[in-house]
Specification:
Shape: elongated
Oligomer: single chain
Strand order of the largest sheet: 3-4-5
Number of helices: 7
Largest sheet: 3 strands, antiparallel
Strand content: 15-25%
Length: 259
């Protein structure tokens, strides 16, 4: 019986050589098995030690020591010091390189929400949960997660949130101290909250720019302080209970079309 190849060769006027016996194939020992390229690797002077990832990460933590809160936030309303993303990455980058550790984002889960600033500007809030692979010099992995949140009026919210998540991973996963005094090292004796007097509300009540909403809030504050019946000299020089005065002025402004 001839094969298809032999019949095709005969039709073309040529002779197809017969396949050689199985013993013509090179012996199995002549094939080189596929092996890992790292099997014969020997670290040079500048290469990290081939240790497990948990030891490499421990060495990173040992070399970092601490990162101080060297950056300041001040928007005119609140002011505080913090450890920024750049400062954290700059501290970790050369140390992780020295010890052969890579920090790679493996999976990012993001959620978004449209918001507005106090001045009414449209922004978008992004919250991410990032699954990280901390890879050691031997290729073994520590899996970790961290979250980050950011607001942005453009298209940078996701990138900002991931940067925050990276800072959280490095600082929390590295147990990096700040060097600040321990909050438990000092105590504050709380005193009684100061109670505002009834007369201190007088100027605000009489101010025509005080809104109806604020007048209702003042009435509530007076009620909380049991001051609704406190007598004061009103705007026309007559003694009047402050609670009644707030209600009266509120009605007068409502009748006159005030806010």
């Amino acid at each position: 019986m001839t094969t298809i190849a032999e019949r095709a060769a005969a039709a073309a006027g040529r002779t197809e050589p017969a396949a050689g016996p199985a013993e013509d194939a090179p012996p199995a020992e002549d094939y080189t098995p596929v092996t890992s390229p790292m099997v014969d690797f020997e670290p040079g002077e500048d290469d990290p030690d081939m240790v497990p990832v948990h030891l490499a990460w421990l060495r990173v933590r040992k070399d970092i020591r601490g990162i101080a809160k060297g950056e300041e936030y001040n928007d005119g309303y609140s002011r505080y010091n913090f450890r920024g993303v750049d400062a954290t990455v700059q501290a970790f980058a050369p140390v992780t390189m020295r010890h052969g550790v890579n920090v790679i984002p493996h999976k990012v889960d993001a959620t978004y929400r449209d918001t507005k600033t106090a001045k009414g500007k449209a922004t978008r809030e992004c919250t991410v949960t990032v699954t990280w692979h901390i890879i050691g010099p031997r290729g073994d992995v520590i899996v970790a997660q961290s979250q980050g949140e950011a607001l942005d009026s453009g298209d940078k919210g996701t990138a900002k949130a991931q940067s925050v998540a990276l800072r959280v991973l490095l600082l929390n996963g590295g147990l990096v101290p700040t060097g600040d005094p321990d909050p438990g090292s000092s105590t504050i004796d709380r005193g009684e909250a100061s109670v505002r007097s009834a007369v201190s509300y007088l100027d605000e009540i009489c101010d025509p720019n005080t809104s109806a909403g604020r007048l209702r809030q003042i009435h509530f504050e007076l009620k909380q302080g049991n001051l609704l019946g406190a007598l004061i000299t009103n705007e026309v020089g007559v003694e009047e209970a402050i609670g009644e005065m707030v209600v009266r002025i509120g009605k007068e402004r409502a009748a006159g079309g005030g806010a």
